[in-house]
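Please fill in the sequence for the structure shown.

STRUCTURE ENCODING:
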């Protein structure tokens, strides 16, 4: 039996044993509309939408979707950046009985095609933007897709931006055909808002198909039920005992199509009756301008965002005092990034952890003196973290021993869509196997050492990239760093680091290796260091290794050797 050692250090005011009652996911919005009808719900580039207004728009969109044939279990895709249409259609699809399928605007046409066919998506909602619409239109010709609902940026913006946008951004806007396969977003809403309420079994009915590489392999659709997502939003909301429902302001720069922002920004904000200060994408100057002007109280981001803020030359002149808490997720938070951010901004920055397969939040550090730098924190209410033997998954390891991190709790997915074999691989005896290596200390805090698949074997010694990256971030000239393993004829594998320096800073490979000599073991010091002006990132802005691994493989094939090109 697992020793719930985290209970003795649990944040004051948070009850791990709290009742977690499952409801339809759209009940988050219905409750907020009933409690805070006149309060702002969304601030989209200056256009304010109240909860009452959003509730009415959602009901009209739900009626519109049902008139388009959406019934229980039908899949509707959202191919959108952060915008009011995303929030409105998300909840409307659920109210109509449908299932939301999130599509990243960064997807290529082959990625869109694969996921549309696999998920059985029939309708996609998008915008008339050149970056989105042509790819969506191509899917009408190449896939099972039968309808596009097409919105515009102008209809979501305040005056005079709504009038100026088509003129100033004319190269970014395209015209959608007026035919039977296209429905303007305004037409979707052109009704009295009367719809047939869907009957929802929260514990069994899927609310969202969220595609992910999973703990390993090709993209698979994680089936996230209404209960999974409703409860995870509640778990996140209670983690901040000092928050005031109806009065908080949440910075919405993470993309809602990604599970982290969907739950921890959009759904949690709705649950709290907070206003979402919405940005279509993360632009550093725009975000830093909004903070003193619109005074957000919560800011969720990924480590690269906080690193970019750290490097801003005028950060000391920007008032960040409205922010009560900053949460970093999506990737490991380097200890040095946390230290610098807190020192420069005066805001607490804590690390949380999760996976798409658990809706996604599993753990978080408390916003008290109990937070531990380098740790992913304590389990969320009702959540159990266990460390199991990688060679014997049924064996739970004692505290302090290293193994695979497993999660159990009400936020764990129902499984992968149409993929029972993959589901059996990751959910064993009720535990979600994360593919992450770590340990739990005597206080119940979990520490991730690294991904199992990212482990580097140097002359038989285990090298964890996160440890090397933490060492690199300690150098004052380093802004971003990521580490991979590359084949080595002598050592089996060697460590290669990719580094982006801060503006106007210089550093040589020899200087950086000398700096690391006192901080890392000899086998951990990178054999190769490559400096770059930019490092590849994922759709939510976290550093990505797969492009670098592919580049190194291409170099080796081109050179015909087993070692990386210098």
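FILLED IN BY: designer on duty
SEQUENCE:
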């Amino acid at each position: 039996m697992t020793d719930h050692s985290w209970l003795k250090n649990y944040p004051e005011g948070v009850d791990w044993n709290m009742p977690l009652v499952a409801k339809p996911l759209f009940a988050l919005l219905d409750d907020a509309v009933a409690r805070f009808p006149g309060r702002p719900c969304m601030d989209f580039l200056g256009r304010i939408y109240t909860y009452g207004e959003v509730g009415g728009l959602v009901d009209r969109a739900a009626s519109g979707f049902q008139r388009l044939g959406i019934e229980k279990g039908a899949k509707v895709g959202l191919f959108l950046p952060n915008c009011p249409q995303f929030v409105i259609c998300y909840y409307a699809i659920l109210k109509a009985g449908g299932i939301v399928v999130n599509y990243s605007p960064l997807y290529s046409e082959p990625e869109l095609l694969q996921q549309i066919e696999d998920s059985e998506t029939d309708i996609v909602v998008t915008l008339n933007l050149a970056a989105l619409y042509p790819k969506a239109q191509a899917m009408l010709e190449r896939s099972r897709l039968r309808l596009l609902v097409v919105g515009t940026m102008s209809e979501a913006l305040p005056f005079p931006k709504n009038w100026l946008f088509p003129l100033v951004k004319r190269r970014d806007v395209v015209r959608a055909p007026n035919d039977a396969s296209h429905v303007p977003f305004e037409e979707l809403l052109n009704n009295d808002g009367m719809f047939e309420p869907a009957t929802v079994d929260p514990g069994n009915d899927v609310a969202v198909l969220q595609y992910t590489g999973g703990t390993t392999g090709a993209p698979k659709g994680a089936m996230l039920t209404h209960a999974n997502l409703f409860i995870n939003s509640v778990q996140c909301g209670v983690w901040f005992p000092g928050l005031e429902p109806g009065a908080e302001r949440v910075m919405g720069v993470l993309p809602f199509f990604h599970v982290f922002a969907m739950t921890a920004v959009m759904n949690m904000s709705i649950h709290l009756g907070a206003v979402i200060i919405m940005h279509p994408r993360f632009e550093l100057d725009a975000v830093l301008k909004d903070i003193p002007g619109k005074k957000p109280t919560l800011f969720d981001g990924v480590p690269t965002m906080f690193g970019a803020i750290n490097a801003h030359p005028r950060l000391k002149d920007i008032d960040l005092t409205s922010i009560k808490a900053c949460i970093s997720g999506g990737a490991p938070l380097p200890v040095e990034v946390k230290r610098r951010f807190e020192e420069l901004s005066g805001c607490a920055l804590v690390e949380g952890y999760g996976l798409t397969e658990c809706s996604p939040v599993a753990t978080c550090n408390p916003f008290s003196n109990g937070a531990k730098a380098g740790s992913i924190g304590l389990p969320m209410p009702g959540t159990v973290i266990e460390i199991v033997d990688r060679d014997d998954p049924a064996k739970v390891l004692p505290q302090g021993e290293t193994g695979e991190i497993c999660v159990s709790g009400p936020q764990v997915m129902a499984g992968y869509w149409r993929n029972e074999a993959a589901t059996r691989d990751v959910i064993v005896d009720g535990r979600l196997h994360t593919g992450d290596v770590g340990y739990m200390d005597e206080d119940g805090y979990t520490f991730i050492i690294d991904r199992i698949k990212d482990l580097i074997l140097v002359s038989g010694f285990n090298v964890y990239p996160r440890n090397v990256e933490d060492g690199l971030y300690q150098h004052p000239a380093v802004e971003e760093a990521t580490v991979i393993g590359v084949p080595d004829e002598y050592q089996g594998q060697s460590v290669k680091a990719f580094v982006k320096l801060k503006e106007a800073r210089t550093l040589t490979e020899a200087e950086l290796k000398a700096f690391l000599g006192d901080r890392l073991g000899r086998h951990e010091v990178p054999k190769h260091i490559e400096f770059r002006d930019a490092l590849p990132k994922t759709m939510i802005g976290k550093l990505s290794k797969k492009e670098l691994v592919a580049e190194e493989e291409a170099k080796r094939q081109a050179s015909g050797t087993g070692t990386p090109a210098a």
